[in-house]
Amino acid sequence: MLRYEETHRYEAEYRILTPSGDIRWMWARQFPFLDWQGQVAGHTGIAVDITAHKEGEAAKRRAERLAMENREMERFTYLASHDLKEPLRTIQNFVSLIHYQHGDDLPPTLIEYLNFISEASARMSMLIKDLLVYSRLGRQKVLVEVDTRVLVEEVLQDLAGSVAEARAQVELGSLPCLKGYATELRQLFQNLISNALKFRQEGRSPHVWVGATRKGKGWRFAIKDNGIGIDLTYHAKIFELFQRLHHRTEYEGTGIGLANCKKIVELHGGYLEVESELGQGSTFFFFIPDPAEA
Ligand code: ADP
């Protein structure tokens, strides 16, 4: 009669190279079995392919590392921009003081230089403000039911001045209710619609369309304009922090808006992309998954 030797069982995780060249992770457990004299007569056991489990673990570790790096980066951005505010305020205060105390005695060139300093510090102040917004995005995220039609209508009310100034026509397609981060979504629409109004083509009356369609387990939104368009070479670059394609004398801005948009969409587990051709207008698409469907 044969019997299993429980005390000598062993377990192991190891990799194997399959004939097709794949590397698979295996888990195995084996027991020796003994003959009637107590001698090992052979082994029995099982081996299971645990590759999917191993890959899941690696992906989880990568996601955790990425989340940690992101948190560090946000903390750095927050502290750096916070600390930059103070010296900037000092510069602005002293420029005002010079104007106030010596304004009448200053030669025109000096006044011009002081104006350059004021303008540069106002720009830096705007950059710091936008960076702070970027670093704070998603800090207090609470998932709520959002009616994106109401949200877009409110955004358009806030942008009424820019819409009127551009003499733009804004059209809304169907816009769904979804679960999302309300403050962040408002900012996302605000940035994309204001860009659609800002980067308008001279001599063409601006037309903006905002709508969404169902796509798989989520919604695909589009913000379409008939503005100046973007050369294909820059389609990826514009989503990076501080990346702008125009000088500020042509179009005002800090180059943070689309980086914010990308971050907001990714907070929702979605993605943001652009389809555009120089001179032919642009369409910014973003996909937001529906948690109820996932
Ligand atoms: P900002 O608007 O402050 O310049 P953004 O990050 O919002 O920064 O946009 C980055 C750049 O992408 C813009 O400077 C512009 O060159 C380009 N861009 C963004 N939206 C549009 C658009 N709707 N049409 C044409 N170009 C755009």
List key phrases describing it.
294 residues; alpha+beta; Complement Module, domain 1; Heat Shock Protein 90; five-stranded mixed beta sheet; four-stranded antiparallel beta sheet; elongated; binds adenosine-5'-diphosphate
Structural account:
The chain is α+β, with helices and mostly antiparallel strands. It has three domains: about 5-50, Ribbon (Complement Module, domain 1); about 65-135; about 145-294, Heat Shock Protein 90 (2-Layer Sandwich). It contains six helices and eleven strands. It has helices spanning about 50-100, 110-135, 150-160, 160-165, 180-200, 255-265; strands at about 5, 10-15, 25-35, 40-50, 145, 170, 175-180, 205-215, 220-225, 270-275, 280-290. Strands 6-8-9-11-10 form a five-stranded mixed sheet. Strands 1, 2, 3 and 4 form a four-stranded antiparallel sheet that branches. Strand 2 and strand 3 form a beta hairpin. Helix 1 runs antiparallel to helix 2 (about 110-135), helix 3 (about 150-160) packs across helix 5 and helix 5 (about 180-200) runs antiparallel to helix 6. It is elongated. Bound molecules: adenosine-5'-diphosphate (ADP).
